TrEMBL record:
This is DNA-binding transcriptional MerR regulator. Residues 121-140 are annotated as: Disordered. Transmembrane segments: none annotated. PANTHER family: MERR FAMILY REGULATORY PROTEIN (PTHR30204:SF97), REDOX-CYCLING DRUG-SENSING TRANSCRIPTIONAL ACTIVATOR SOXR (PTHR30204). Keywords: DNA-binding, Transferase. The keyword Nucleus does not apply. PROSITE patterns: HTH_MERR_1 (PS00552), HTH_MERR_2 (PS50937). GO terms for molecular function: DNA binding; transferase activity. Residues 1-68 form the HTH merR-type domain.
Length: 140
């Protein structure tokens, strides 16, 4: 398939696909006239790149992992494993932080629902309490 079809199948702009190639994230074959050609594996690769980008990985970080996915050897695999472990740890920390924020938000929603229910029923509502979730860390 050509770049336009890859773009249509993945929802990623042609410009972004060219950027991925420039960064070494994708490797296309070229026709005698110089047109890029892709196959179904490229569709899966673009989806993976998009998932990694959405998770906050830079194109440089993804490029460090690509050799292990396309042409593994022991040296590349060891280097890529270190990068992958680092990114997995970063994602795990981010997930824990998001879960804590969601818990605090759930508590705040519950407190405010109680406040609004009391007010709607004519009871003098107490001042909504603050949730008991984690407190912000100065400078963090």
């Amino acid at each position: 398939m050509r770049i336009g079809e890859l773009s249509a199948r993945t929802g990623v702009s042609r410009r972004s696909l060219r950027y991925y190639e420039d960064q070494g994230l994708l490797v296309s074959t070229r026709s005698p006239s110089g047109q890029r050609h892709y196959d179904d594996d490229h569709v899966r690769r673009v989806a993976l790149i998009q998932a990694f980008l959405a998770a906050g990985m830079s194109s440089g970080t993804i490029a460090e992992m690509v050799p292990c996915m396309t042409d593994p050897d022991q040296r590349k695999a060891r280097r890529a494993m270190a990068v992958m472990r680092r990114e997995r740890d970063r994602l795990s920390a981010a997930l824990e932080s998001l879960a804590a924020a969601r818990k605090a938000l759930d508590e705040l929603i519950d407190v405010n629902l109680t406040y609004l229910a009391d007010a709607a029923e004519g009871r003098t509502p107490a001042q909504p309490a603050q949730p008991s979730g984690p407190r912000p860390v100065p400078g963090g």
